[in-house]
TrEMBL record:
Signal peptide: none annotated. CDD domains: metallo-hydrolase-like_MBL-fold (cd06262). SUPFAM superfamilies: Metallo-hydrolase/oxidoreductase (SSF56281). Coiled coil: none annotated. SMART domains: Lactamase_B. Keywords: Hydrolase, Metal-binding, Zinc. GO terms for molecular function: hydrolase activity; metal ion binding. This is MBL fold metallo-hydrolase. PANTHER family: HYDROXYACYLGLUTATHIONE HYDROLASE GLOC (PTHR46233:SF3). The keyword Metal-binding applies. Residues 12-189 form the Metallo-beta-lactamase domain. Pfam families: Lactamase_B.
Length: 206
């Protein structure tokens, strides 16, 4: 697996590009704004985008969806419980910030246990509600793309529409902390971490 990332937009949300080293097929994960870095990374590394995957439907993770789809033609996937966030500023939190962010409806609605693929690269969808009803993490052995569920030393906020603190804590403890401790965690904001470090040191998970 090859991985690139950059924090984009005013909310500094991490956009990830993951690719199969053999086929050069790639997924763009959480394109929060239409940033030229995304297209440059794809072109410079000779990648073919075969999917746009959203860890959840909040404004800072979906603002570049239509732009990426426009030049790549790749289908958009989001968990079914967050599908309406794409078209509803009230649900995606943008009205909360005095903004109006929208995207086209998704092409694929994900459920827990589904797989998303790029060449030989496969990620399993882990449904982790709490930050939003349809929040997901993407897992392959050794790697977890955690969205806004789990951060280095913190957890996702729960004050936006559909958020629930107790549900989030339950999701993290039951679905994520059971993964191998050396699993690298790539969150939606901030630096990477590991499951072991968060299990040992994250004050929200004591």
């Amino acid at each position: 697996m090859q991985l690139w990332h950059r924090a984009l937009g005013a909310f500094m949300a991490n956009c990830y590009i993951v690719a199969c080293g053999e086929t050069r097929q790639a997924l763009v994960i959480d394109p929060g704004v239409p940033d030229p870095w995304i297209q440059s990374c794809v072109m410079e590394n000779d990648l073919t985008v075969v999917g746009i995957v959203l860890t959840h439907g909040h404004l800072d993770h979906i603002g570049g969806v239509d732009w990426v789809k426009g030049w790549s033609g790749a289908p958009v996937a989001i968990h079914e419980a967050d599908a309406d966030c794409l078209t509803s500023p009230a649900l995606n939190g943008s009205l909360y910030f005095g903004m109006t962010v929208q995207a086209s409806p998704a092409d694929r609605l994900l459920q827990d246990g589904d797989e998303v693929e790029a060449g030989a690269l496969r990620f399993r969808v882990i449904h982790t509600p709490g930050h939003s009803p349809g929040g997901i993490c993407l897992y392959r052995p050794g790697h977890l793309l955690a969205g806004d569920t789990l951060f280095a030393g913190s957890i996702g906020r729960t004050d936006l529409p559909g958020g629930d603190y107790h549900t989030l804590i339950q999701s993290i403890k039951e679905r994520l902390l059971t993964l191998p401790p050396d699993t690298a965690v790539y969150p939606g904001h901030g630096p990477s971490t590991t499951i072991g470090d968060e299990k040992a040191y994250n004050p929200f998970l004591a």
